[in-house]
Amino acid sequence: MSGFPPAQIIPPQVLLGAYAQGVFPMADQGELTWFSPLMRGVIPLDEKFHVPHGLKRSLKRRPFEVKWNSNFRATMQGCADRERTWIDATILESYCLLHRLGYAHSVECHDADGLQGGLYGVALGKAFFGESMFSRKTDASKVALVALVERLREKGFLLLDTQWLTEHLQRFGGEEIPREDYQRRLKVALGKQDGTFHPPALAPGV
Beta strands 159-163 and 127-135: pairing type? Predict the structure, then answer.
């Protein structure tokens, strides 16, 4: 599927409906493509989630102040700030709208110099769909990921989707599961959907 010109908003119900079916968009040189990988990356929210020893030492030093949703747009822009990115104007504005509606969230790591890293994604039902992360200083995105997992556990979430599995995410216990298995997990995490979506309480103050 494609056809959204640059900077045009993807309607929120289209985006949320796609996520509810296990589908997500990415942009490439002005073309919007929708994906549903045969093998899906997920991070466990139980005891299988692993924090590397080096990161544990870093967490004890508390190098960053973790904030939620304090600058969602800047977090997306940080994720897009690389040589090749799938985050174009359409993706940026569409997810910023989802954020204003309460569905998209950013987890940010700040220090005295400002925003140093973080991640963003979409929350629907008891599923969180991680979209992208970035770091300007060592361990910033990793600290954000640990904070995300802690919050998802507190809120009783059942699924943390990473779309594809990377070597980086494998260090945290990330794994690949077949699309059929993912769809089963997604259905459980979403519960009964009547076609009307409601933003779940996830971030502080939400």
Answer: parallel
- Mean pLDDT (whole number) for 62-66: 94
> For the segment 16-26, what is each residue's pLDDT rounded down to a tens digit?
999 999 999 99
Could you tell me what percentage of the chain is helix, strand and coil, using 3-state DSSP and rounding each to the nearest 5? 35, 25, 40
Name the CATH code of domain 12-190 (choices 3.30.43.10, 3.40.630.70, 3.60.120.10, 2.60.40.10): 3.40.630.70
Sheet holding 104-111, edge to edge: 65-68, 104-111, 114-124, 127-135, 159-163, 39-42, 175-178
Residue type for position 168: H
Percent of the chain with pLDDT over 70: 92
Q: Where are the domains of the chain?
A: 12-190
pTM of the shown model: 0.91
